[in-house]
Amino acid sequence: MVQLRSNVRQRKGTPEVGDVIAREESWQVLWTEAMASHDPLRLFDALANRLADFGFDQVAYVNFQHTGEALSGQSGEPARRTITYGQDWIEFYAREGYFEDDVLFDLALTNQRPIEWEQVTSALDLSKRQLEIFQAGWDAGHRFGITIPFHGPTGRVATLSVSTSGTQMDVPRDPMEVYALAAQFHAIFDAIAGSKDLVPPPPRLSEREYECLSWAAQGKSNRDIAEIIGVSEPTVQFHMSNVMKKLKVSSRVSAVYEASRVGLLR
To answer: CA 99, CA 108: separation in Å to the nearest integer?
Structure first.
């Protein structure tokens, strides 16, 4: 079992009205100072501590432009600091290669609204591997969680995942304030941490390459795609290999993500 540690304060009991007001004022000062500092990591710390007041003691922000490799364990220290998950869980997640198969990231590419993890496991027909990831997260202390996707220009995507080591009863029934806070944080983080460089145009795909990629994005296998477009399976494999080369990735999942990120898929 993976033991989860968090560096965010825990919410204890039901606070008194005076405590709530004092905490609100204190957080507003912290938030204002963080924005004024133009330090995205300080801003994240302020967000994480605020979310702890709502019962979410674990937070992970993954901006696929700025901190896209955070959960894969390949990023620098600044990117890792946008996660309050315990180091044991981060290392375990990376070691097991969960990033490629995590359905939450796939859903974030195609959904605009917050995604409740409990709804995902109950409403979708998940693979054994996908269920394994949720079970591992449960064992690590991620008992109830929500992933909030943000979509930007040219297909850029970011996610803010919040979870509790408690139960759903420990978090608000109507988390709209959490969603609003998350959106505010993302907009400011993106403005502060965003690259000022021009974004290069996406690679050009042939009509067949784009067709195969589009069907792959819908979960179709090479065999399925071959039957749909009326070509042989090796031909589909040839086109998908070209797509992966042009996008500089090594898997179909990564190709779909990268194509969405750079605006090739709509």
So the answer is: 13
Could you give the CA distance from residue 177 to residue 59 in angstroms, rounded to a whole number?
16
Residues of the chain with pLDDT under 50: 1-12, 14-15, 17, 66-80
Bridge partners of residue 147, in order along the sequence? 115, 161
Instruction: Give Cα 9 distance to the centre of its chain.
Output: 22
Cα–Cα distance between 125 and 135 in angstroms, integer?
15
Is 160 in contact with 58 (CB distance < 8 Å)?
no
d(CA 68, CA 117): 21
- Measured in degrees and rounded to the nearest 5, phi and psi for residue 146 equal -140, 135
Contact by Cβ (8 Å): 41, 78: yes
pLDDT for the residue numbered 71: 39
Q: How would you list the strands of the sheet with 115-116, edge to edge? A: 58-63, 157-164, 144-151, 115-116
Structure confidence at residue 170 (pLDDT) = 73
